[in-house]
Design brief:
The chain is mostly beta strands. It has a single domain, classed as Hypothetical protein YojF (Protein Yojf, Chain: A). It contains 1 helix and 9 strands; from the N terminus they run E-H-E-E-E-E-E-E-E-E. The strands form 2 sheets. It has a 6-stranded antiparallel beta sheet with strand order 1-7-8-9-2-3, with helices on one face. A hairpin with a 4-residue loop joins strand 4 and strand 5. The longest helix is centred in the N-terminal third of the chain and has 9 residues. The protein is globular and about 40 Å long. The two termini are 21 Å apart.
Amino acid sequence: MHPIDRSIVQPALDRFLNREVYLHLETTNGAYAAHRQESKMTVGAYIRNGRISFIRGTITGEGPYRVGLKMQDGWVYAEGLTDFDLGQEGKLLLAGHDEEGRLAVALELSMEPFEL
């Protein structure tokens, strides 16, 4: 993975515009976060191989970054993104890691389903 460069990530998002794509989105301070204090509430969200089509995809911020995917009837949104990878077969992986390198958020887009 590489630190996010908006000049690379924005065109990568644009490649998925107006196409049915597969979405992986997760956020957590739970399963991956053995460091959490027991007194804090564990939260997380997870979707894998959700099929969406978006009419606008935008990366904003100065780091950590935010990505919004505008669909016909709503939005997909991820915040706290720090790193990216342009994977094989045209996949785009965006992830947010904390200062110790622990995963906090991930957003992936692909033309093909993700492995389960």
